[in-house]
């Protein structure tokens, strides 16, 4: 049995196994949430109304059912691009039209992205204008959606094509260790994006105004000083123009760090609750979660580039994924695309590990926030956010372990209430 056939079988088996696991998890989630829809959990009976609890259940079930259809479609597209020969056909058409070389490879990447985006567009539109609209979360107009799409496409081309061209050039010109140079370029690119995102990219999509509430500003500034955290500014973002969901986050890198509050968050929480939410985010920095995640990203991407450097020279890698490469000519773009298609298929089975680590980090950030501010304020803020975002209070435990990056509300509040 040839290596390419073995790889084809392994790839197909991983797709089927992954799809079965995803369907099993989604149906568990739907069943568990539906079973508990009729009664608010005892721990929340005094703070969450039955109507709010049922809205969260219905929203969770609707998203899970929509996800089932989306998963099936994504699996079909993956098979179409790979084993059914879609990417091979696109590559040959472009070779016949343009010929070989850097231009053809860049056009292949761009065409793949454009076709993939169009094929997934109906799901994006349905989620935004039907599912989110149905539950009162979507605030985006068609005009704004179109403007965002055009900006994202243009920005993707302006930023993505140069880094893609650099990596493709390194693959062909930097020798056997090209993957090491490409990894360095990719990491530098990501750090640069983190640096310029708050100032140059984010304002293309949202308006940011300095926080002008003097009482809240004083509390937040005092908290940050107490925690030893410096930021370039405190800003309010017009998140309500697109969604009713609320959030707060840090953005930027080094001296460009900013604290950003959604306007929806400031409308829903009082000053003490906002301070507690910010303290939670500061907890991530205090425990160096951001640095640890960056180091993990650096390590995983280095391993990924090293693996890509090896498989890109193996005929079985291309043939096993439905592509007939010309090993005497550059196949760099093909290798990149096939690698990006294949890695998530196999990587899905280790997804619970980063999810587990993320939940651990959230518990640590909660504990830090409770130590720095009022635990009652943090609990109240979390309950309001869970309710306003229609997050279910009764998720399936197995689904949580596989997917949830944040612990369920019941676990977070119980941990905060437990004696130190």
TrEMBL record:
Its EC number is 3.4.24.84. Zn(2+) binds at residues 280, 284, 362. The chain crosses the membrane at residues 6-25, 68-87, 107-129, 150-172, 178-197, 294-313, 333-357. Pfam families: Peptidase_M48, Peptidase_M48_N. Signal peptide: none annotated. Its cofactor is Zn(2+). It is found in: Endoplasmic reticulum membrane. Residues 29-207 form the CAAX prenyl protease 1 N-terminal domain. The active site is at residues 281, 366. Residues 211-417 form the Peptidase M48 domain. CDD domains: M48A_Zmpste24p_like. GO terms for molecular function: metal ion binding; metalloendopeptidase activity. Binds 1 zinc ion per subunit. Keywords: Endoplasmic reticulum, Hydrolase, Membrane, Metal-binding, Metalloprotease, Protease, Transmembrane, Transmembrane helix, Zinc. Belongs to the peptidase M48 family. This is M48 family peptidase. It comes from Variovorax guangxiensis.
């Amino acid at each position: 049995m040839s290596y390419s056939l073995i790889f084809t079988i392994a790839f197909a088996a991983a797709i089927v196994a992954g799809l079965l696991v995803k369907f099993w998890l989604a149906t568990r989630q739907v069943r568990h949430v539906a079973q508990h829809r009729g009664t608010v959990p005892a721990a929340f009976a005094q703070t969450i109304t039955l109507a709010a609890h049922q809205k969260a259940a219905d929203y969770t079930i609707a998203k899970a059912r929509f996800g089932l259809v989306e998963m099936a479609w994504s699996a079909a597209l993956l098979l179409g691009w790979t084993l059914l020969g879609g990417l091979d056909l696109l590559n040959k058409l472009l070779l016949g039209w343009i010929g070989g070389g850097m231009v053809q490879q860049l056009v292949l990447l761009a065409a793949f992205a454009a076709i993939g985006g169009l094929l997934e567009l109906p799901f994006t539109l349905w989620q935004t204008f039907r599912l989110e609209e149905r539950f009162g979360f979507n605030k985006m107009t068609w005009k704004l959606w179109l403007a965002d799409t055009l900006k994202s496409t243009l920005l993707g081309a302006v930023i993505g094509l140069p880094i893609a061209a650099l990596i493709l050039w390194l693959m062909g010109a930097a020798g056997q260790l090209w993957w090491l140079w490409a990894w360095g370029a990719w990491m530098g690119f990501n750090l640069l994006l983190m640096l310029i995102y708050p100032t140059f990219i984010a304002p293309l999509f949202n308006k940011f105004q300095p926080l002008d509430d003097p009482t809240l500003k004083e509390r937040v500034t005092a908290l940050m000083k107490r925690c030893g955290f410096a930021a370039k500014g405190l800003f309010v973002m017009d998140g309500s123009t697109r969604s009713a969901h609320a959030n707060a986050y840090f953005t930027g890198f080094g001296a460009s760090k900013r604290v950003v509050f959604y306007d929806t968050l400031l409308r829903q929480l009082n000053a003490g609750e906002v301070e507690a939410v910010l303290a939670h985010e500061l907890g991530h920095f205090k425990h160096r979660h951001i640095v640890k995640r960056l180091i993990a990203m650096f390590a995983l991407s280095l391993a990924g580039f090293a693996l890509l450097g090896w498989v890109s020279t193996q005929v079985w890698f291309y043939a096993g994924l439905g592509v007939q490469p010309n090993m005497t000519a550059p196949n760099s773009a093909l290798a990149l695309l096939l690698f990006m298609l294949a890695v998530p298929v196999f990587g899905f089975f280790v997804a619970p590990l980063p999810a587990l680590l993320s939940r651990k980090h959230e518990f640590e950030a909660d504990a830090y926030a409770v130590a720095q501010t009022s635990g009652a304020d943090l609990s109240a803020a979390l309950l309001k956010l869970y309710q306003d975002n229609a997050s279910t209070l009764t998720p399936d435990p197995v689904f949580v372990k596989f997917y949830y990056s944040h612990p369920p509300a019941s676990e977070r509040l119980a941990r905060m209430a437990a004696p130190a």
